[in-house]
Amino acid sequence: MRGERRRLENAAFCGTFLRIFYCGSLVKRRGTCYNKRVKSKYILRIGDLEIAVERKKIKNLHLRVGRTGKISLTAPFFVSDGEIERFAAAKYGWRKKHLQTVTTEEFSYVSAGKTHIFGQTVPLVYHADKEGFRGGALFLRCGAEGAEERVKRILKGLLEEKIAQKLALWEQKTDLKASSWYVRDMKTRWGTCNVSTGRICFNLRLAKKAEECLDYVILHELGHLINRYHDKRFYKFLSYYFPDYRRVRKLLNE
Ligand SMILES: [Zn+2]
To answer: How far, in Å, from the CA of 34 to the mean position of ligand 1?
Structure first.
């Protein structure tokens, strides 16, 4: 729990969350330094969630889910927007878990002899001479036993190829540039952007999603190079380059 707390407090990056949020402890800080310039009321968006944030002269952060499903969060003035966001994500994840609405099923790349590649259901063909994705099927040299690891590796290659093409296009469009990027299998986020180094990480699971989802995540993470938090300015940036982003964000979390 201590490590988790440190992680929450030191997180220098901001990411696109998956539906399942990480659970963390309450970020509390004692202090009397009230920052008058911070916004007292605003709407925070995390994934599909809308949270009405209000800063008050209080000591701790509280998150409430009303009967109608409306989520509100009250916070002291000395807590930053980023801390509020991390708290909300952690707390809401915890709440969902306790309401048993979080998907607990294990994630896998292969199920019933099939996989998904950029939104398409693709059958696996085992014991093939040549490995690769062709003619709408994924050919594997191995049998069903080793399929999960092989498919993962092949999907990684396909995703990296796609990111290389798409990222270059989005960088040109937005005039922003990632210092570097990599692909990793992650449980809680579709992507992350380290704001201080400009390095972007993409979730391997994006290889299973429709291509427009990848476009959205690329733009989202590039947006963090100039906007650290999910604030008004950030969403203005998103809708400027991707007017349809809400629909795609929904698709991403289905
Ligand atoms: Zn983000």
So the answer is: 26
Q: What is the DSSP string of 131-194?
A: -EEETTEEE-SS-GGGHHHHHHHHHHHHHHHHHHHHHHHHHHHHT---SEEEEE--SSEEEEEE
Contacts of 32 by beta carbon, 8 Å cutoff, 6+ apart: 78
Handedness of CA 191, 209, 97, 49 (dihedral sign): positive
How many angstroms separate the alpha carbon of residue 215 from the centre of ligand 1?
14
Would you kindly state where each structural domain of the chain is located, as residue ranges?
A: 21-98, 114-252
Predicted TM-score (pTM) of this structure: 0.62
Rounded distance, CA 21 to CA 253, Å?
Answer: 12
Cβ-Cβ contacts under 8 Å for 73 (sequence gap 6 or more): 44, 51, 52, 53, 54, 61, 62, 63, 64, 84, 87, 88
Look up the CATH architecture of domain 114-252: 2-Layer Sandwich (3.30)
Mean pLDDT by 10 residues, the chain (254 residues): 40 44 34 57 79 88 71 85 81 54 61 92 92 92 92 97 98 97 91 94 96 97 93 95 94 86
How far away, in angstroms, is 229 Cα from ligand 1 center? 7
Task: Give the Å distance between the CA of 221 and the centre of ligand 1.
Answer: 6
Distance from Cα 124 to the centre of ligand 1, integer Å: 34
Rounded to the nearest angstrom, the distance between the alpha carbon of 20 and the centre of ligand 1 is 15
